[in-house]
Amino acid sequence: MSNHYIEVKNLKKYFQTPGGNLHAVDGVNFTIDKGKTIGIVGESGCGKSTTGRLMTMLLEPTEGEIFFDGKDITKLTPKEMVEYRKKIQIIFQDPFSSLNPRKTVFHSIAEPLEIHKVYATKAEKENRVYELMELVGLSDRFVNSYPHELDGGRRQRIGIARALALSPEFIVCDEPVSALDVSIQAQILNLLKKLQLQFGYTYMFITHDLSVVKHFSEEIMVMYLGQMVEKAPVKELFANPRHPYTQALLSAIPVPNLKKKKERILLQGEITSPINPRQECRFAARCSFATEQCRQEVPGITDLGGGHSVRCLRIHEI
Amino acid sequence: MQKKLLEIKDLTIKFHTDDGVVEAVNKVSLTVHEGETLGIVGETGAGKTTTALGIMGLVDCPPGRIEGGKIMLNDQDILQLDEDEFRKLRGKEISMIFQDPMTALNPVFTVVDQIAEVIANHQQLGEKEAEQKAIEMLELVRIPAERAYEYPHQFSGGMKQRVVIAIALACNPRLLIADEPTTALDVTIQAQVLELMKDLKTRSKTSMMLITHDLGVVSEICDQVAIMYAGEIVESGSLEDIFENPLHPYTNGLFGSIPDIDKEVEFLSPIEGLVPDPSDLPKGCKFHPRCKYAQHLCSVEEPAFQEYSPGHYAKCFVYEGKLPAKEVKKYE
Amino acid sequence: MAQIDLTLAPAGKKKSKKRSLWADAWLRLRKNKSAVAGMIMLATILIVIYSSPLYLDYDNDVIKPDLTQTLQFPAEGKLLGTDELGRDVLARILWGGRISIGIGVLAMMLSSIIGCTLGAISGYYGGKTDGIIMRSLDVFMAIPSLLLMITLVSIMKPTITNLIIALAIGSVPSVSRMVRAQVLYIKGQEFVEAIRAQGASDFRIIVMHILPNAISPLISQFVMEIAGLILAISGLSFIGLGVQPPDPEWGAMLSSGREHIRDVWHVTAFPGIALVLTVVALTLVGDGLRDALDPRMKR
């Protein structure tokens, strides 16, 4: 048994579609230490959100194990799972649809407390709700507002307060700022960071935006079509990206700086279908380094040391 | 000096709703020269899209109404045109790309038909010729001719957006308005589309107005930049002016909010507070409730749009000399 | 931050007061002119009809034939004239409305309870459960609902209770379908997932989160469905399977007046007008409710 706080082994999720099996997540491994953050980065359809849903057991994995504090949560009975729900929480991307439009701010935040019957009296519960609202920077005059009366930033704060209500230990942040305006994004990112410093939360930060995750995590895992393509400590990944996809992703980010215009690696084509993928490197179709071998063999993971691993056949040649 | 293609003077657009009058666009003045790309940057509700719809003559009326100002296209005030004349203008002189490529194409027609239709509408061409031209357009946006007869659902998001661009460019418009053209796309696809737009820009003489919230995208293809906040332009200037020497506190705040991929910082420095409710805008400078440097003056009087250096304007009292300048610094 | 928030607060929208969703809905409903008109109409109809036992005597005014006064045109004393047995049409319309509207409302309540349960289970669990429930309902759907009701009533006896049951069963399939479609849509929203992530039970999710969101856009349809059911009762009575004589019922009155329509128009026209007015009032109120119950509707 390892001493990692969270350990994910060979996690797989296939969805049945009329066209065949959709390999949403296909054999992902990673670990997170307590109080740290892992960033999961990739484009739409790479399986990052599905991974987040699997981590919170909102979806049942097809295969694989998720060890949480030494216990495999995929094998829990529904009753045991209820206890783990308190410890594992999720913050959603869209603050417009992640709140029940018919519940006031108070009810949305108090809901988890009611489900788990945390407080015996109403007064205690109310206190906790106000405390949470203060924690996330929501003025208490909004307590009886409905979500549609508030803007995206405030709604996202409600979503965060709700996730914090049960004092969780591990929080999955599924693109928590991508639906928000730039100036609000920074506010929410700072809030999440502050909360982590204050309470020692462990985060899994899912995003398509490498620059957002850079300030946030200790380790980054880049995903492509359900598979990990590269995983490294954040500094190492930015300084020394090894997988052709990571390199392209990094260079594709438009930088608001006139002095540092870098050479851009343009990828050809677009993501191929994740339904019944062929036995090949999934990135081969868009990779400028791809050879015959890449199209015939599924690349294994090469460990480069220092926590840096890459899934590429030609890693030592590129 | 290049020739002015589009000149907007004091454009004011208001929406009359049950909850009150929403001042969506307030005395906006802009100029786009021939062959130039103007970036309009701002957050949700800043009035970027409404300005664009105003130029296209597509503001929903009611509740919207253009209450004042002029929009001069080639020295002709297009606000004076009647609906028929305006329709001839759209697609031919000015065309627009919308944010969501998924819904911008009609699913029951082939891609080539949709482009040919626009061409046939505005140019006296036969069916065959229009189709030929449409295929040329597709090749221009790097879609192989053999895919011309496919339907939109067979295309991916990035390709659909390229088809949309091809439709917009089909009649060689003088002005192309692109409303968040890459926001709905993935990063690597966004890079492809931006590269294509840059290439088209250098090849054709089309002027462009790019509406976006992403300063990174602006730095890629724009020549001129205007920053909008709460229906007003708070700063405008050349790309270098805005990026190297941002004047307005809001512009500075925007730069501070963006996580910089090349820097190590623990916390970002965001703009505090929220975008004001457009039906209840603050008095004086619209930005003062969120401004770190706001003084009493800012809450009573409205600053003028002052020229700081040639071509570089900002709407802040500091540049009128009414407030000490020492405090407004460049972002860290 | 707090300071800034205050200055940005939209004027007149102080959030300190607690107000329920219903109070809010009522405010919005009151602003809607056609809904107010509908409510006034409906209230008038209901008050006049349901207070009729206070000023009408069933035996003397409603069912007692007076063969000397048959088919009289409207005149003083008998404002809407008399029918083929010399009974006062106005008295019979008022008394009959109690039966028509009462049956309609009760049948709709019954069918919405059954329909919501089936629709919610079917939509939420999906898969086999959904298949079984929906295919069974399809069997009922395949038969036109009026035909189904006719069959059911003729199998059972045409008593008021049986009539209610038959009408309810006839409208269950369409109600379930509507509810199921809404549930499917709401189930896909992130907030349901968020509540699941909190560890809420299926029952709590369905009852507290999905159904309230699913039903309110349907309430107007339910109200309009009542109108449809009133028409169905009238239809059943018209062919003799609904309310039995001598009890008055609008459809039955239409039916019996039909034979004399060439000579005297009022015997059919007035029950018909009563029916139309009630249906229009219900429809207006239903439309208003749909808008009022959506908390996102602000204008």
TrEMBL record, chain A:
InterPro entries: AAA+_ATPase (IPR003593), ABC_transp_ATP-bind (IPR050319), ABC_transporter-like_ATP-bd (IPR003439), Oligopep_ABC_C (IPR013563), P-loop_NTPase (IPR027417). Residues 6-250 form the ABC transporter domain. GO terms for biological process: peptide transport; transmembrane transport. GO terms for molecular function: ATP binding; ATP hydrolysis activity. Keywords: ATP-binding, Nucleotide-binding, Transport. SUPFAM superfamilies: P-loop containing nucleoside triphosphate hydrolases (SSF52540). PANTHER family: ABC TRANSPORTER, ATP-BINDING PROTEIN, TRANSPORT ATP-BINDING PROTEIN. Belongs to the ABC transporter superfamily. This is Peptide ABC transporter ATP-binding protein. It comes from Brevibacillus panacihumi W25. The lineage of its organism: Bacteria, Bacillati, Bacillota, Bacilli, Bacillales.
TrEMBL record, chain B:
It is a peripheral membrane protein. Keywords: ATP-binding, Cell inner membrane, Cell membrane, Membrane, Nucleotide-binding, Translocase, Transport. Residues 6-255 form the ABC transporter domain. One of its GO terms (biological process) is peptide transport. It comes from the Bacteria. GO terms for cellular component: plasma membrane. The keyword Translocase applies. Belongs to the ABC transporter superfamily. This is Peptide ABC transporter ATPase. The lineage of its organism: Bacteria, Bacillati, Bacillota, Bacilli, Bacillales.
Automatic annotation (TrEMBL), chain C:
InterPro entries: BP-dependent_transpt_permease (IPR050366), MetI-like (IPR000515), MetI-like_sf (IPR035906), OppC_N (IPR025966). Gene3D superfamilies: MetI-like. Keywords: Cell membrane, Membrane, Transmembrane, Transmembrane helix, Transport. One of its GO terms (biological process) is transmembrane transport. Its main location: membrane. Pfam families: BPD_transp_1 (PF00528), OppC_N (PF12911). The keyword Cell cycle does not apply. It is a multi-pass membrane protein. It is found in: Cell membrane. Residues 97-286 form the ABC transmembrane type-1 domain. GO terms for cellular component: plasma membrane. The keyword Repeat does not apply. The chain crosses the membrane at residues 35-56, 99-125, 137-156, 222-244, 264-289. Belongs to the binding-protein-dependent transport system permease family. PANTHER family: D,D-DIPEPTIDE TRANSPORT SYSTEM PERMEASE PROTEIN DDPC-RELATED (PTHR43386:SF1), OLIGOPEPTIDE TRANSPORT SYSTEM PERMEASE PROTEIN APPC (PTHR43386). This is Diguanylate cyclase. It comes from Brevibacillus panacihumi W25.
